[in-house]
Amino acid sequence: MEAESEPYVRLATMRQLHQAVADLNTARSLADTLQSVADGIVASLGYELACVNLVRPEGDLVIAAFAGNAAAEALITGRVGSRDSWNRRLSMGEAWGGLRFIPHTEGWVLLDDDVPQWHTEGPEPRFEDEWHPLDRLYAPMYASAGEGDLLGVISVDRPRNGRRPGAWGREALQMYASQAAIAISNARLRANMQRALVRLEREQQALRASEESFRQAFEYAPSGMAIAEMGGDQQGRLLRTNDALCRLLGRPASVMRRYSFADLVHPEDIGTLLRTSAEGGRAELRLSRRDGTYLWVSLRNSVVADTADGPRFLLTHVEDIEERKRHELNLAHRASHDALTGLPNSAELKSRLSARICERPNSSPAATAIEALDAAYGDVESSLTHGYQADGYEGEVVPGGGPFDHHVHTVAPDPEHDDGTKGLAVLFCDLDGFKSINDRFGHHTGDAVLIEVARRLSTCVRDGDTVARLGGDEFVVLADGLGAADAADLAVRLRNAIIPPIRVDGRAVRVGASFGIGWAECGMTVEEVLRSADQRMYVEKRSRSKVHRRAG
Question: Which residues form the GGDEF domain (predicted)?
Answer without folding.
Answer: 422-552
